[in-house]
Design brief:
This protein is an alpha/beta fold. The chain is built from 10 helices and 12 strands. The strands form 4 sheets. The chain has a 5-stranded mixed β-sheet with strand order 4-3-5-12-6, covered by helices on one side. The chain has a 3-stranded antiparallel β-sheet with strand order 10-7-11. Strands 1-2 form a two-stranded antiparallel ribbon. Helix 1 crosses helix 4. The N terminus is likely disordered.
C-alpha cells in the first residue's frame, strides 16, 4: 500500500528538485550520488525526507533501481526546467558562447560510437578543453525532454518530434565477407548457400533483416549477434557473410564487398537535441563540429 503522509504545505526547495532529478536520471542511489557528488546514504535520506514532506512516493523501488512515479516525473521535469534556466543564466553571465564548458551527454548506438563518433572526437576535445563528455550506448532513443541525455545521434529517416537537429549524411550498407572465409568456399558458391551472420531476435525489424528476408526468403542465418558492430566483427574474422554499413568496414583489408551498396538500406544519420537546450554553447559547439567532421562513405 502506498504510504500517505499528511502535510498542510510542502517545503519543497530547489535542492530537493535537484535530488529528485539526479535520481530520475541516475536510476540508482549510486548514480544519483555520482551526479550530486555526495554519498549514497545522503541521497537515500534526502529522498525519504522529500517523500514524507510531499506526502507521496516519488520513486518505486525494484531490482532495476528507482523508477519515478507520475509525481516523481513531474517534479523531475520542473527540476530540469530550472536547470535549463540556470544554464541560460550562466551562458549570459560568463559569455560561454566564446568558450563553452560543462558536461555534454551524448547517447548513440555501439556501432555509431566506435565507427563514427570516436574517430573524430579527439580534435573536438582539443578545441574545447572545458567541455567534458559522457557517452552512453543504447539502441533505444532516450527521452531528451526528461534530461536523460543532451544529444542523441541516431540513424533514421524520420526524427521524432519535438527534437531538432541536423542530418550528417546517409549511412549506406552492403553485403560483406571475410577474405579468409571466401578462401575456404568453392568457386561460384551462391550467396544464399553461404554462412550468414545476422542480428538476433532482439532486432527483428531492423532494415537489414527485412532486406535479407525479402532477397533470400529461404535463408536461415547460421550465426546471430546483438548489433551491427558484432556482425562486422564476425565477418572480418571469417565466420561468414553479413550486411554491414560501409562506415564500419571503410576499406577494411580483410573483407570483400559481395553485393552493394544496397540503396534499399540507405538511411539518414542525424544528431538531435531538445529545442529547450539546443542553443547552449556546448551543444552548439558539438553540432557545428560534427557537421564538418563526420564524413560518411559515398
Amino acid at each position: 500500500m502506498k504510504p500517505s503522509y499528511a502535510r498542510l504545505q510542502s517545503r519543497l526547495g530547489l535542492q530537493d528538485l535537484e535530488t529528485i532529478l539526479a535520481l530520475h536520471r541516475g536510476r540508482t542511489l549510486a548514480g544519483a550520488a555520482e551526479r550530486l557528488k555526495v554519498d549514497t546514504s545522503t541521497v537515500f535520506r534526502a529522498i525519504k525526507r522529500i517523500e514524507q514532506d510531499v506526502g507521496e512516493l516519488l520513486f518505486d523501488r525494484g531490482r532495476q533501481g528507482y523508477t519515478a512515479t507520475e509525481l516523481g516525473r513531474v517534479l523531475a521535469s520542473h527540476g530540469e526546467r530550472i536547470e535549463t534556466q540556470l544554464e541560460e543564466a550562466r551562458e549570459a553571465a560568463f559569455n560561454q558562447a566564446t568558450e563553452p564548458s560543462g558536461l555534454l551527454r551524448i547517447t548513440l548506438t555501439d556501432t555509431l560510437l566506435h565507427t563514427v563518433l570516436l574517430p573524430v572526437l579527439a580534435p573536438f576535445t582539443t578545441l574545447h578543453p572545458r567541455i567534458a563528455l559522457e557517452l552512453t550506448t543504447t539502441n533505444v532513443l532516450v527521452n531528451l525532454s526528461q534530461g536523460e541525455a543532451d544529444i542523441a545521434t541516431r540513424v533514421t529517416d524520420d526524427p521524432p518530434e519535438p527534437l531538432l537537429g541536423i542530418r550528417l549524411g546517409t549511412v549506406r550498407s552492403a553485403v560483406y565477407a571475410g577474405k579468409d572465409y571466401l578462401a575456404r568456399q568453392p568457386a561460384g558458391k551462391p550467396l544464399a548457400e553461404m554462412d550468414w551472420v545476422a542480428l538476433d531476435d532482439n532486432l527483428p525489424d531492423h532494415p537489414s533483416q527485412s532486406w535479407r528476408r525479402a532477397r533470400y526468403p529461404q535463408l536461415a542465418p547460421r550465426h546471430k549477434v546483438s548489433n551491427l558492430l558484432a556482425v562486422a566483427g564476425a565477418v572480418v574474422n571469417g565466420l561468414g557473410v553479413g550486411v554491414a554499413p560501409l562506415a564500419v568496414m571503410r576499406e577494411h583489408p580483410h573483407v570483400v564487398m559481395l553485393d552493394g551498396p544496397l540503396p534499399e538500406l540507405d538511411i539518414g544519420l542525424w544528431v538531435l537535441a531538445h529545442p529547450d537546450t539546443r542553443y547552449l554553447g556546448r551543444m552548439k559547439a558539438m553540432f557545428d563540429f560534427l557537421r564538418s567532421a563526420v564524413v560518411l562513405p559515398p
